[in-house]
Amino acid sequence: xxxxxxxxxxxxxxxxxxxxxxxxxxxxxxxxxxxxxxxxxxxxxxxxxxxxxxxxxxxxxxxxxxxxxxxxxxxxxxxxxxxxxxxxxxxxxxxxxxxxxxxxxxxxxxxxxxxxxxxxxxxxxxxxxxxxxxxxxxxxxxxxxxxxxxxxxxxxxxxxxxxxxxxxxxxxxxxxxxxxxxxxxxxxxxxxxxxxxxxxxxxxxxxxxxxxxxxxxxxxxxxxxxxxxxxxxxxxxxxxxxxxxxxxxxxxxxxxxxxxxxxxxxxxxxxxxxxxxxxxxxxxxxxxxxxxxxxxxxxxxxxxxxxxxxxxxxxxxxxxxxxxxxxxxxxxxxxxxxxxxxxxxxxxxxxxxxxxxxxxxxxxxxxxxxxxxxxxxxxxxxxxxxxxxxxxxxxxxxxxxxxxxxxxxxxxxxxxxxxxxxxxxx
Length: 426
What we know:
By secondary structure, the chain is an alpha+beta fold. It has 16 helices and twelve strands. The protein has helices at residues 5-16, 18-21, 34-45, 52-62, 74-85, 98-111, 154-159, 166-172, 200-204, 209-223, 238-249, 261-277, 324-332, 343-356, 368-400, 405-423; strands at 120-124, 133-140, 145-152, 180-183, 187-190, 196-197, 255-256, 259-260, 282-286, 295-299, 309-313, 320-323. The strands form four sheets. A five-stranded antiparallel sheet has the order 1-2-3-5-4, sandwiched between helices. A three-stranded antiparallel sheet has the order 6-10-11, covered by helices on one side.
């Protein structure tokens, strides 16, 4: 985001309140302080670059005994794994250690040459934008720049199929994501992001067709990027890997309003079999969580034509091999009344996408009408999975963060209801 006067005022207030916040909140400390020594100790011990529980989880998900959606013993394996997880739950991703976060952020600041901590303001970004991670906005007075730091929790790390930051680096060279400045195995510091975050209403509003067109263009470019075959993300469908990992972390006895773990496992198996039987097109560089709040839009001048709108995607931890239509379906997904859907926005989005998407050779012969028809068909098949994957995520959160279980359970049930409703549209 642009370094605004509002943010500057916030930073000044933050500095004034620094002493009073020291006892209870998050405040960076000078490099010579004891806590800074703790940060150096953390780095030397490897906790900054490698969290033991995250590494263990990755090892579990990639071992020969990991669950595969194509195995007939899926339910048995899930039951075995989840009966163990109830007594071996991951540390709750929502209950972060602020002192540990502070140590990582101080290390980030030093890595970009910022040693005068007094001239820095750090704000925690709203949790709604980072359910299972921590995101901080860092303002530096001397350079009038804003950085973003994202600290990943075990649940997020367990869903990934590529090394953290590897796809961000690749995609940033195409100008589609913020530049990652510092990357560890559990955190990323990004260069400043300008613009505003899209909202769901922007996708369906009558006056937002140019924003939708810009997102379609950027998404077509993203889907055209090739990922080296050496990365896991280039060979494994991230959607199924994510569902698999999250279900494994759920408690075997989970139950809420008729929603149980065995039921979710059966549904995922059925959806996997159905979608695989359709041989839907895949892309090597799908976003994986392409909802409006993960997109920054910047109007480059007073004109509002699509060519003057810049798009930056954020939150690429689920990026990799995906069904082509999964991102398209998630961008326009809504549980609002159907009359808010704006057909003109969708058509502009699809057309811009197709103009910038480099398709496989086998599809080059298609006419624009055939292209559009196929995209709409694919989106219809993938829409239910955008809801189901979200429902599983919140069930997993309920199991891992039992202090807020009621909140996560309600969110899970809402997404599951939307999943069931979307099945009628197939």
